[in-house]
Each structure stands twice: as C-alpha cells, then as structure tokens.
Specification:
With 209 residues, this protein is α/β, with parallel strands linked by helices. It folds into three domains: 40 residues, no CATH class; 32 residues, no CATH class; 106 residues, Type I PLP-dependent aspartate aminotransferase-like (Major domain) (Aspartate Aminotransferase, domain 2), CATH 3.40.640.10. It is built from eight helices and four strands. Strands 2-1-3-4 form a four-stranded parallel β-sheet, with helices on both faces.
C-alpha cells in the first residue's frame, strides 16, 4: 500500500529553523565545533520543584485526561499571575491551557480561517505563522519591518495590507527573531488602524514576555 503526503503539506517549504538545526546536528556528529542559533531553548534547566511536583502527581495517579481548558488550580494560578504581573483581571472562562504556543496558534487559525482568508504577518517573523496559514488554506501577507525603525511595524503599512479577506494581524513582540519591542505609542497607533477594520482579529504572541 502506497502512502502519499497530503498536498497541503507536500507543497509547504521546509522551515528554515528545522533545516538549520538538522545541519548543526550533522556537523556536530562529524566533530565540528558548532554553536547553533536555530532553535530557541531555555538557558536553564526545568526547576527541580516542578520536576518533583510532576513526579509526585503522577505517582498519586493524576495521569488521566484533564478538563479541556486545563486543571482548575493551574487556571487559578494563571489568573493570579495575570493580575499580579500584567494588571489584567481575567475570568476563568477566558483562559485555555494548551501544550505550547504553536498548538495555540494552530488551534486559533484552524478554528477561524476559511480558504483564501488573509493573515498579516510583520517580517522578520517566526517561521510557523505563514506555514500554518498556508497549511490551512489561508494567505500570509507580509509587511516589512525595517531595521532603521527598530523592526517595528509601520501602522500605515498595516492599513494598506488590510483587505475584506483579512482575518488576523499577528503581533509577536518581543519579536522572534529580532528582539524588537513595541512601546505604548506603537500599540496605540496600530489600534487606531484596527478601529477602522473591526473584522480583523489580533493574535498577540507574547511567548517571550
């Protein structure tokens, strides 16, 4: 029995970060002294207390499927964190826990994109935004963020990129890969543009908060 990759995957380019990481591993096997800057990894080990807590929970039998939004103690801890660190008063019905940022992004786009819908992605960008968009039949629309402007998106470029088919604007700040951040005035200028286009959703990927 033959196996054929679905066209929605076969036509996607290989992510550059994955290709770079694979090449770095190959060179290391060959004995080369390689510093790989391809994949982001924490520069610290998992905290011992987290490892011990996970081990204790597993030994106690807490190994079944959790509620879809996440365990209540975890959601309560997230609410406390958002209130303490971000001055956000969020209720539990606004929180959903997932296995990682990429899954959250995939879920959101999977649940909302129709074929031909557009997703505005400031560039440079993390490779997964346009790849997931293409995989689901959407159209990534890049807007260039220039180095001389601190790699911040130009609100006018966002306005010009918006069409009736625009579904999402992706904001990833602090940015991967540039490290750029947005100041309050930057966000207010973008918000002014979006008030003119209420059909556009905002995905704020704050993985590096």
């Amino acid at each position: 029995m033959s196996f054929t990759i679905a066209s929605r995957l076969a036509d996607l380019p290989r992510p550059a970060t994955i290709a770079m990481a694979a090449r770095a591993r190959e060179l290391k096997v060959q004995g080369a002294d390689v510093i790989s800057l391809a994949l982001g990894q924490p520069d610290f080990p998992s905290p011992p207390e987290a490892i011990e807590a996970a081990y204790a929970a597993a030994k106690a039998g807490d190994t079944g499927y959790p509620p879809i939004p996440g365990q209540k103690p975890l959601i309560d801890a997230i609410i406390r964190k958002l209130r303490r660190d971000n001055a956000l008063d969020v209720t539990s019905d606004r929180i959903m826990v997932a296995n990682g940022g990429k899954q959250v992004i995939f879920n959101a786009l999977m649940a909302s994109l129709e074929v031909g819908d557009e997703v505005i992605v400031p560039a440079p960008y993390w490779v997964s935004y346009p790849l997931i968009t293409r995989m689901l039949g959407g159209v990534p629309v890049e807007i260039r963020c220039r180095e001389e402007n601190g790699f911040r998106p130009d609100p006018e470029a966002i306005r010009e990129a918006i069409t009736p088919r625009t579904k999402w604007l992706v904001l990833n700040f602090p940015n991967n890969p540039t490290g750029a951040i947005l100041e309050r005035q930057d966000l207010e200028a973008i918000a002014d543009v979006l008030r003119e286009a209420p059909h556009v959703l905002v995905m704020s990927d704050e993985i590096y908060e």
